[in-house]
Amino acid sequence: MSKSSARAEDLDDISMTAQELHILSELDSRQYGFLLLHQPENEKKRELVLKAVKYLQLMVVQARRQQKVQDENEPNNYQQISKKISIDPKTWVKLGHFHLLLEEYRKALSAYQMFYKVQAENHWMDPTFLYGLGLVYFHFNAFQWAVKAFQQLLYVSPSFQRANEVHLRLGLMFKATQEYESALKHLQLALVDNSPCSTPKSIIKFHIAHLFEVQGKVKGAKDRYELLLRDKTITQTLRADIFRQLGWLYHCHDSLGDKNQRIPLAIHCLQRAHEADQFSGQTLYLLGRCYASIGKVHDAFIAYRNSVEKSEGNADTWCSIGVLYQQQSQPMDALQAYICAVQLDKCHSAAWANLGILYESCGQARDAYACYLNSNRGLSNRNSTEDTFLPSKLPRLSVVGMNPHLSQRISFLQSNLANAPMPSATSQSNILHTLTDSHTHYSSVITELTAFVNYIGQVELLPEADELLFPPDFFLVLLVVLSPQFYLLK
């Protein structure tokens, strides 16, 4: 039996009832966000969609095989035009819809692009194609292409059934690209549209409030956040997000009052955010920043430690820990924290700048110069890729707060180092590990910590003991100083 006939039999083996075909005919990109096929109650429909995908894929394979056989059997005569076996373009767009509903975004994009290829002149006539294509581009953060697809959709079909979903995503993308007037226009259009929406109205209001915040319209943002808190129907997660943003507003903006009044309010809001969502390391990090700003070093360390326990891969937290250690004149501990930060985020400009300040204060000009250069590169990279799409994104630590003349320091060190002799082996030893040696040094710490953790995992407590007998601050030191290297192994 030939492979082509086997494929044909496979195609014949997939049978569907009239009811199943009717269900499939009604499925397209408009059900995205509403029909959640991964939910247990939609298991049967998911199986049906998977069967349809398999059938369509076999159709494509069979058509291509037949075309290949036909081409091989044609005589080698350039004047003869061979008959092409065509695949209905609707096959590709339907396949794209099914993959989208299954959240198989790469496969959906591939199918949509095939439809665009065969329907290059008429693709705009199918609104569900434009919508599905825009959703896929939006998923991959390809905002330029997503905006183009969505705007084309609204132009050809102003009364599209999911116009509110389109306006919402356009608003979020324009906010990310700092086109704030367009963002506000589309978010408000999404808010006033009473058509069914996959995103609750309260979330849209939150995005509008955050839009005011990123524009620096502090009072407008504060009023909108507080108005949202009066809504008793919002989820605990959203309540935590609102309190966190409100707390950070109080921390950052002098226009909201005197510091002695603002910081207690900020701490109160962040504590309320923590009560609403106790698993957020982000909230604890911001709480630590507030404590640090008023000199409560111990409380700040505890908040940072708890933040690390919740979300260990946070470079901002380790940079803040480094600042605290540096302020407490503990350069070795500060070095370890900063190294953790730049290992987690190699473009973390604040960590690199603060590490440079630390090296310079210890007389290690070459290491300081290298760190300042990395800080400048990190700042450039972050400015070109910064994503303000998510309102819960952590506020970025400011380099300017510790060193407002970074460029001047780079120029100064560059001119001095150009005339300075190279360090010799007999020169005085450095106070801190050099930037190069730090990675080697902490690699050995990783090995030791891994062995220690494996040992702890095998220790059984004595019946009369509540805990292992280690010095009181041992686990705090282990967590705050050594654990980041262990976390990097995960």
UniProtKB/TrEMBL annotation:
PROSITE patterns recorded: TPR (PS50005)
Classification via InterPro entries: Corepressor-Demethylase, TPR-like_helical_dom_sf, TPR_rpt
Superkingdom of source: Eukaryota
TPR repeat copies, ranges: 89-122, 127-160
Subcellular location, principal: nucleus
Compartment list: Nucleus
GO cellular component, one term: nucleus
Keywords tagged on the record: Nucleus, TPR repeat
SMART domains, sorted: TPR
The family this protein is said to belong to: Belongs to the UTX family.
Protein known as: Lysine-specific demethylase 6A-like Protein
Organism of this sequence: Tribolium castaneum
Gene: AUGUSTUS-3.0.2_31465
